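Forum: Protein Structure Q&A
Topic: Joint prediction for protein chains with partners

I've read a bunch of threads here and the consensus seems to be that you should model interacting components together rather than docking separate models afterwards. I'd like to see that in practice. Below is the full input, 511 residues plus whatever partners are listed. Could one of the regulars post the assembled result?
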Amino acid sequence: MARSYVIVGASLAGATAAITLREEGTDGTVTLIGAEQGLPYERPPLSKAYLRGEVPFDKALVRPGAFYPEHGIETVFGARATHIDPSARFVELEDHRRMPFDALLIATGGRNRRVSIPGGALEGIYGLRTVQDADRIRKEMVAGRRVVVVGMGFIGSEVAASLRQKGLDVVAIDPSKTPLFRVLGEAVGQTIADLHHAHGVRTIFGDTVAAFEGTQRVKCVVTKAGLRLECDFVVVGIGIEPAVDMLRGSAIHVDNGVVVDEYCQTNVSGIYAAGDVANHYHPVFDRRIRVEHWQNAIKQGAAAARNMLGKRVPYDEVHWFWSDQYDATLHYAGFHTKWEELVVRGRLHSGSYLACYVNDGRIDAVVGLNRAKDVRRVMPFIKSRRKVDLAQLRDEGVDLRSLRASL
Amino acid sequence: MTTEFVTAIKTNEIPVGGVKAIDVRGSRIAVANVGGTFYAFDDACTHEQCSLAEEGDLVDTTLTCTCHGSEFDVRTGKVLAPPATLPVKAYRTRVEGDALQIEV
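Posted by a regular:
Agreed with the consensus. Here's the joint model:
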């Protein structure tokens, strides 16, 4: 009997799952439901080439519009799911339509975190998550204007770079000691701070926003330390929270996102989650992980689809992402929260290095600045959990593909 | 359109496990040496046009574009892993003496 597959979230993860269900040859119905109007798209260009006006939006589409009907994927865009009933097996949309399913994928992603700061409702303060957000920021991007970027995580760092590249006057503020501090730590974060300084960004670390001031529109950012930053507009990038509102009161387990096992399945049989919203058990690291990476959206979306078809394939990808800032590219692979040792190959502050986050002789994660190939070559060691010879890891003369295991 | 084999490079200029990009009659073509067998394909990744000779990491017959993680089978140009969705064009090769020839 043909089954009905419903995907909530026309995100990169959701669209990839729909495509994969068809590629795997299901004869069931596939329905892709999204809150945003329009076709599924990839978000990485929104803080980079698209924001700078260098590529058209079409280039960010996951597939051209004709692809979905041609492949028998029914699409319902511009319709937010408001409720999921796991026992009666239906999704309810905001227009009260009910979409029954046999198997369901939750790929609703996240929404920008908000903090309540005095003056936060003034005009000229933007978040960045959707293409509409990017379009609003683009309208403000005139060379010479003054912008304050709040938060120097990946979105803040990339936006700051893009704004500088377009000739705006950029001040960035973050409560940590460096950009990307929470993920990469101080030593690596400092190299990113240097990169921004070299391109003329003024940074303020160890301080936060106390208030936005202005009459109708923001004119000044006031910090806790008492700085007053005059500006024409503000971009806030302080992270996302998983979009799980539609699960409130349901039996589906939510804890920092939708909790799923290594088969992308929730505690309710036949209901799955993938992408930014999925707090997934990772067999390589033997713990739950929730990441907000583009590669995870693709790979986990595909893995979830295969598991919806009963293939029982564990999702054990080594997480990976990249970040373009100015002419530098940062790649990261693995997962780490703390580290005993940071093993550096090359020199930090040299414009090209590899840094490995090592615990108990094993590489948990690696970050490279302009070292894409080296990051790729370290990934097998992260996945295998083998201890490696750290002296060799440090030694530029040793080919990473021939690293010895340590005793 | 007729094609012919064109001498592109000397075989000893591409070490085993190496990938090198060459201009052949106006096309930028990458050649991979897999254990002494040569495979030729368009150098530009079909995802974001990164040079596969520059950015590609070759393991056996799988070439990973390290810019964004697309994987290709160098024997056929077929996509093995996204984000690329389109194959890279593959070319036939043959060895004549110490010359590697590519059919273009």
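Chain B touches chain A through nine residues (CB under 8 Å).
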